[in-house]
């Protein structure tokens, strides 16, 4: 089921997020990890050995900057012009390209293909997978890897979920994100023609804390 997205409206939320998020990482070095916990969980090996990658919703751009440092040709796409301006200034010299676009529009209009396409708490969480996944498959090289991470669903709360920015007072900024069970994500990937599908939950470093859902599949 698709939520009634208004990407102009959602852009305002992500611009505000970018302004805030950047303060925390402006001096940080590039780093690539799939979970929300520093130094925890798998790293870029999940992507195989790509020569080219696309990050969907790159935010601070640190993951793409890390791959660019390894000599990988990287493109990041993000809805927020502020995020794109910041990442271009901070990491552009490493060779990565940062594009401001809504990810589905970008995948439809672009003709480029990639060895890996990924999202780390990024656009794969914030767009309808039934629309996004076939677009991703079309832009992957044969045998290319699609991987995404985000928080696991809250039990019983599946499908599109509304999310207000920063509490329940102030400007009504909101976006939609999509939550499903591990098995439902795997079924969706299979339905969209992906192979070698693995979807799992990675436990948090502390028992009882929020884990991470990690999906990985290949273009058949
Ligand atoms: C939670 S942040 C991602 C965090 C990122 N992995 C980082 O380390 O900063 C989500 C990002 O996805 C982007 N985003 C959300 N919906 C999008 C869409 N439909 N198309 C492109 N980017 C989108 C937002 O602008 C935001 O930068």
What does this structure look like?
With 220 residues, the chain is α/β, with parallel strands linked by helices. The protein has a single domain, classed as Rossmann fold. It has 7 helices and 9 strands. The strands form 2 sheets. A 7-stranded mixed β-sheet has the order 3-2-1-4-5-9-8, with helices on both faces. It has a two-stranded antiparallel sheet with strand order 6-7. α4 runs parallel beside α6. The site of S-adenosylmethionine (SAM) has 19 residues, from α1, β2 and α5. S-adenosylmethionine binds next to α1, β2 and α5.
Written as H for each helix and E for each strand, in order along the chain, the element string is: HEHEHEHEHHEEEHEE
* Ligand catalogue: S-adenosylmethionine
Number of domains: 1
Beta-strand portion reads 25-35%
Q: How much helical structure, as a percent, in the residues?
A: 25-40%
Strand order of the largest sheet: 3-2-1-4-5-9-8
CATH architecture heading: 3-Layer(aba) Sandwich
Number of helices: 7
Oligomeric status: single chain
């Amino acid at each position: 089921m698709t939520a009634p997205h208004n990407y102009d409206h959602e852009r305002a939320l992500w611009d505000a997020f970018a302004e805030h998020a950047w303060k925390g990482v402006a001096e940080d070095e590039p780093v690539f990890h799939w979970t929300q916990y520093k130094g925890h969980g798998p790293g870029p090996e999940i992507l195989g050995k790509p020569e080219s990658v696309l990050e969907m919703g790159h935010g601070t751009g640190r993951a793409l900057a890390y791959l660019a440092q390894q000599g990988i040709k990287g493109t990041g796409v993000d809805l927020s012009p502020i995020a794109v301006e910041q990442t271009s200034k901070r990491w552009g010299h490493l060779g990565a390209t940062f594009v401001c676009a809504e990810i589905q529009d970008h995948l439809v209009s672009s003709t480029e293909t990639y060895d890996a396409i990924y999202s780390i708490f990024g656009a794969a969480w914030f767009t309808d997978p039934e629309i996004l996944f076939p677009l991703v498959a079309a832009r992957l090289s044969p045998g290319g890897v699609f991987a995404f991470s985000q928080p696991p669903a809250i039990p019983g709360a599946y499908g599109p979920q509304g999310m207000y920015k920063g509490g329940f007072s102030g400007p009504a900024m909101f976006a939609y994100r999509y939550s499903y069970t591990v098995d439902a994500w795997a079924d969706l990937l299979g339905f969209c023609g992906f192979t070698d599908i693995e979807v799992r939950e990675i436990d948090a470093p502390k028992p009882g804390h929020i884990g991470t859902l990690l999906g990985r599949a290949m273009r058949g």
